[in-house]
Amino acid sequence: MSAVRNHLFEALVGLVVVIAAVLLIFSFLGRTASGAGSNAIEVTAYFPNVSGIDVGTDVRVAGLSIGEVTSVALNPDDFQAEVRMAIDPDASLPNDSSAAITSEGLLGGSFIALLPGGASDSFVQGDVILDTQGAIDMTGLIGSMINDSGGSSDGMGDTMSEDFGAEDGEMLP
């Protein structure tokens, strides 16, 4: 009798594990969905720098995901990155909205932030976002700050005794 009870318990535990795995998979699929839905509007934006942006990157408004990047390619005419995004039409963003590549923090991933404009017309299929701001090169920015802080010719490197009127090598009383 205890053998049957053990097999029944093992089968029940196995069933719970399978159900939990299926729910976890559906949870991950729902979390990674674009938020744009099947009736998404595709809009295009041109950026000078798209570091950190790939297909599947979030498109957000006020921190909320309303879509995702569907393609990234180099425009051969002006050598800017052409980014196509699928966005949720229910967001009803004005067609003069701007786009900026932003990061979630110092070490976080990048996403595209759409900043709503003031136009009365909303985005439609095939619209182009004209006002864009590319990704900031944090490594280059930090490097330039380090290089600029080494010394200067603007008088900031003077010693304290020079600031108080002492001549070279002379000590103030």
Terminal residue distance: 101 Å
Q: Identify the strand order in the major beta sheet.
A: 7-1-4-3-2-6-5-8
- In percent terms, what proportion of residues is strand? 25-35%
Determine Rg (CA atoms, Å).
28 Å
From the helix content, strand content and strand pairing, which structural class follows? alpha/beta
List the domain count as a whole number. Answer: 2
Could you explain how this protein is built, in words?
With 173 residues, the chain is of the alpha/beta class. It has an eight-stranded mixed β-sheet, with no helix packed on it. The chain folds into two domains: 1-32; 35-142, no CATH class. The longest helix has 31 residues, at 2-32. The radius of gyration is 28 Å and the shape is extended. The protein has helices spanning 2-32, 138-148, 160-163; strands spanning 41-47, 58-61, 64-74, 81-87, 98-103, 110-115, 128-129, 132-133. The model has no long low-confidence stretch (mean pLDDT 79). The relative contact order is 0.15.
Quick recap:
This protein has 173 residues and is of the alpha/beta class. The protein has helices spanning 2-32, 138-148, 160-163, and strands spanning 41-47, 58-61, 64-74, 81-87, 98-103, 110-115, 128-129, 132-133.
